[in-house]
């Protein structure tokens, strides 16, 4: 519970309708898609940069934890206020401040929804590349916090590649701007990209200048099935090695296909593995681009390559891919959805390792995801308490395999609560020590999103 | 001069042929393309990561300045050892350690030349995008130090967009790895991009994992002349707003054209401004891509649009562009070559401002550069001591104009010695304070490249 003097300070910053200590209201700002939940002591709804700066200073003065929150769509517990304190929900700072087509940029508030941004950009024939599955209801600053990606990242990069400048308030209470509305810059240290992926542990973003990309005027969707995972992964490497990069290169293993078919019907083929490939371009260039990608996809072990003939067929393909995540949750309410990354060429080894672990722990494990980046959603699917207990050991071995294959814990979901204990396996001790020291400079009293991203000091290195 | 105990420590780390305190030898490691020069007390030639780690620890123990050096092609004085001490020249760590086409990456030593890397990649039909004019004789770690760009950055990004992972030794003596050989990652703070552009002030890079791009199989070069700078800048915005991004979009103002013609002959047209545009692609896609860019380039004020018909014509166009820099030095041995960046739409205002300053200070100022990124090489060309004296005041006003137009001091050359006094104008005080604190965590005794990038504490904010 907040001490009275802290609450008084918050009341000086926020009008009555922008501050709540009501337990029922606080409750709903205490969980995210990780299904973890801790009720904060207060929720505030900032509407200006100045309020955020005053909020951080007040929280620092009272040593109160402060957790910035978009819409809680993240899967890692990064927005759960594990030490209580104040949650700042940015739902009222949701405006597009400026769209500047000549400079291919937009200036936005942190609580703007990704989908609302895309809708505002469409009339200008521009888009912002990050496209997580949650795009209709996740925020830009949430995307920034976890370096969100999505299928398009294979061609257009993830969040870190698509932000030009930020305005923010460090945990010290100092507000600052970093970056510029330009695509090049070599003026001092890159604070912008340091904040991206830092999960609100260094500073709270109050404004973002986003790099936009011209919207291609046409897109073609292909479906390629292969005899097995190795053949599909080999095709991915071939596709990525030629100059026409697809704008999506999604992978589903045989077990995902079986599940998708069970839920989605016979339109989903059964095969050893499937790739959903999208190619974008202009009317004149699209056909040859599709040809180039098709040639690369026609490698050993191809079963069938189909170009979707209609919008309905495209919709069915993506529906299968997008229905997977909820379908898996139906199968396993406690599913553990990881988003590990390995070099593209090591995808078959990783999938093979998960099969071995599935057998060892008698537990369903399926793999799908963004193959062009080697970013696989390894899903552990415990169906009862006994399987759930085994799943945690299996997960630990999944991470060991990922590290062994020169990969890392997360490609786009971040670390949050759920993966921070594994950080000492993924990073060397000196890198982790430098990260802790950077944290201490931005947030000397550790008020910003405590208990996230960096492991506790007593977690041993593996 | 090094104290004897420091020299003894260096002698324990380096064999006799990898350490010199000979004044004549030290002399040549004390300058760069900024034409500034300070002779270091010793030069060492590391050949392993372990030697570099031991070197940093020895320099820290003795509080000796340590400056990492590629080939000294930078223009900002970043590799000049202004406080003496030890220069570490990386010319012996120049190997390509691994080319991995399936994962589109290469692992290289820091002293590898950019041009040698490109030659090693060509048989794999891959390239590394950064292409500064000095590519044949500048190093990869030099490119990393200043976040080097070049014409291709408009399509493929600068150095910061094309490095996946680094191995490095911080000024504290701690060695670490950051990043992974994957194109996505959301595992902790982004130390990789923090090091890129830090000019050797945080850590010394000993290995780099570079992101590669498939080499397009064909390229077409266009030349577009316009009635004036504003018309050319408007065409640049139109070109950048459509989906086919050219792989070079270079700008020359009327004065540059006149100078290039004087040196390069009648093949160079006289006009209000010229764009050199390159479009790359595959045999099937190139023609429509050229058409799309040509349509965008055909805006109001176009004088003539020519597609180069032959290799010779292409070579002549680029020769004119590349001869500019040396031609300007002939005209003005003390030329001041800046590489400021502004939003693309503000290029005409910046060029107009430089014209006003040229008149005010009675000093030739010309503009050319990477228009697609708004990255202009503003060249001040003093021809005698009186003009040189005035040039410094003019330069200060150029930077004021750049900041006024929402731009920044450097797009690809970095800050070094020559621009650090202007940093307080470009960055707000809190951002600068955070940079200083990051520096203090990586390099607590300030031994790495002292006197660079960050301004002295007593430089007032403008």
UniProtKB/TrEMBL annotation, chains A, B:
Residues 36-215 form the FAD-binding PCMH-type domain. PROSITE patterns: FAD_PCMH. Signal peptide: none annotated. Its cofactor is FAD. It holds the Pfam family FAD_binding_4. Keywords: FAD, Flavoprotein, Oxidoreductase. This is FAD-linked oxidase C-terminal domain-containing protein. The lineage of its organism: Bacteria, Pseudomonadati, Pseudomonadota, Gammaproteobacteria, Lysobacterales.
